[in-house]
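2024-03-11 09:14:02 INFO worker-7 job=invfold-0412 stage=load source=structure_tokens
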């Protein structure tokens, strides 16, 4: 084997030594990184983020729980930035909390289970909650509709209560992504029905997907009546599901005027996926359980409907 001599040999040895040092340094960095990741996964540390200092994994989980209680949703990117850890670490946290029944993971984050907006509760249970308030909201909203108008009606228990209040009208065109609304409309003499089609969301009678969105983009209506998982003066109308949010945006775009029907338990809440700002809708109809101090932020579009306190639905 050829061996360098003289000055070339000295340079060769220096090069070997430098590369050896670099190899040792790289191995040390890799080992330190692996050790830190192992500690993170075991819950020993969390990193140094906006919370300040090192925080146990159990504390991190508690902070995530608190955020869910406060807003109803979290995003992986915001938690990663807040705690100073990789997004992959946050995903593992959310997976663990999902196994504990604390949250439901979705695209880009997670939503609270049976929390703000009662996300993902089966329709047979959801329709019995705050029924008195929903009926009062529905009755007021029905007063906006005239004979012969074209309505886009969103899915949900409140919108179903709304369409029931329209039975006295003899001529309407209803466009909907809700199978229960569709069935009721099909049974009304003189009504025209257009169903969006799409994929059925199990348990809630909602049709979603690109087909539904495309059809909504091809219609023009007088009114769009929407439900909502959450409504906040700053965050606007938000929803727990990405596909449902797309359909709601298409409904707003299809109508001359948009109306959100949401009982007061939905207001002041935020969910994961944005639908529209409060400024994008024309009417927000809720019940008078909304505290007076919270009403001004929604502006003149807000209507709080009186609910008869002597009537109870057991909600």
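2024-03-11 09:14:09 INFO worker-7 stage=emit residues=315
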């Amino acid at each position: 084997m050829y061996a360098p001599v003289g000055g070339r040999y000295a340079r060769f040895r220096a090069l070997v030594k430098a590369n050896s040092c670099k190899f040792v340094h790289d191995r040390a960095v890799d080992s330190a990184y692996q050790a830190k990741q192992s500690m993170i996964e075991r819950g020993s540390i969390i990193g140094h983020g906006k919370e300040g200092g090192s925080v146990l994994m159990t504390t991190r989980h508690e902070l995530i729980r608190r955020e869910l209680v406060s807003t109803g949703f979290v995003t992986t990117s915001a938690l990663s930035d807040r705690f100073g850890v990789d997004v992959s670490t946050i995903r593992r946290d959310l997976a663990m909390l999902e196994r504990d029944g604390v949250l439901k993971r979705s695209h880009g984050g997670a939503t609270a289970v049976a929390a703000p907006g009662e996300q993902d509760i089966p329709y047979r249970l959801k329709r019995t909650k705050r029924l008195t308030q929903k009926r009062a909201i529905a009755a007021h909203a029905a007063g906006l509709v005239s004979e012969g108008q074209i309505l886009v009606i969103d899915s949900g228990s409140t919108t179903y209560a709304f369409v029931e209040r329209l039975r006295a009208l003899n001529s309407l065109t209803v466009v909907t992504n809700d199978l229960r609304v569709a069935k009721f409309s099909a049974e009304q003499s003189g009504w025209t029905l257009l169903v969006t089609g799409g994929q059925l969301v199990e348990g809630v009678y909602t049709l979603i997907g690109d087909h539904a969105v495309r059809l909504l983009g091809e219609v023009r209506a007088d009114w769009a009546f929407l439900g909502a998982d959450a409504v906040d003066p700053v965050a606007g109308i938000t929803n727990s599901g990405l596909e449902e949010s797309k359909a709601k945006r298409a409904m707003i775009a299809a109508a001359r005027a948009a109306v959100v029907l949401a009982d007061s338990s939905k207001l002041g809440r935020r969910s994961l996926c944005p639908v529209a700002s409060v400024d994008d809708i024309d009417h927000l109809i809720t019940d008078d359980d909304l505290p007076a101090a919270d009403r001004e932020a929604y502006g003149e579009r807000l209507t709080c409907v009186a609910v008869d306190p002597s009537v109870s639905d057991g909600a």
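2024-03-11 09:14:09 INFO worker-7 stage=report msg="Residues 39-46, 115-120 have pLDDT under 50 and may be disordered."
2024-03-11 09:14:10 INFO worker-7 job finished
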